[in-house]
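Task 17 of the worksheet. Students: predict the tertiary structure of the chain below and write it out as structure tokens. Keep your answer in the requested format; marks are given for formatting as well as content.
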Amino acid sequence: MNPMSILRSTLSLAALLACSAQAQDVSTLLKAADKFRMSADNLQVDTQVSVLNADGSADRERRYKVFAQAGRQSLVIMQSPSEKGQKVLMLGDDFWLLMPESQRPLRITPMQKLLGDASTGDIATLSWADDYSGQLIGEERCTVTATAAAPASTAAANSARADLPQQPCLHLSLNATRKGVTYQRIELWLGKTRHQPLKADLYVLSDKLAKQATFIFDQAAAPTMVTEMVLTDQVSNHKTTHVRYLNRKERQVPKEWLNPMFLVRNPPLD
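Model answer:
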């Protein structure tokens, strides 16, 4: 083999190893970020979704009990009086809506709206590491969201954001690895030191920016978990949707709860 061939082979091998190392690094970063949203493989999360108008006034609010289970399985039980008895079941790439008056589960997509800009996928899925791969773009400076308090107006929000501190963060560009995900592409920013999720740009299949998400934590100095996700619509309105995680506890549900034909019988679930 001549020297040029050896050089080309060496460079190709180096590039391959670099790509492999970067992919491994991204996977590790996503697993670390996921722990701030899902602290166990099988979890019950009591969730409140609130929609705020552009001026900060309340629009609507709903409650959900979410059972996020290992193996890409989730069951969402509606808790508010206007939705009582309704359920959403996610099994891998398949989503079903179960209505109390219907004897057949209805196929839906992860983009099906629940309330405001919160879709079924936003509520039912809490893992990025299982669903996305991508690359580390580099290090940037990111604004740190320090409080969950809603500003009184858009102008106040812009002023508040300008005063928030910044910190080094890592920018990841992610693409979906399976079809049944809510977003085809995510631009995600993580804290450089702890790898907590700070913000995300969420793109649908047409590569249109659908929403922007910011994440709020239990404590600013040393965060351990996400307590709230704020979704800002980028398509049709200027409302914000606040997804608050009121309570988390480890819980594995009975296997029959994850069967759509069992759920259509509207059994009591406690």
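Marker's comment: The two ends are 70 Å apart (CA to CA). Confidence is low (pLDDT under 50) at residues 9-23, 147-161.
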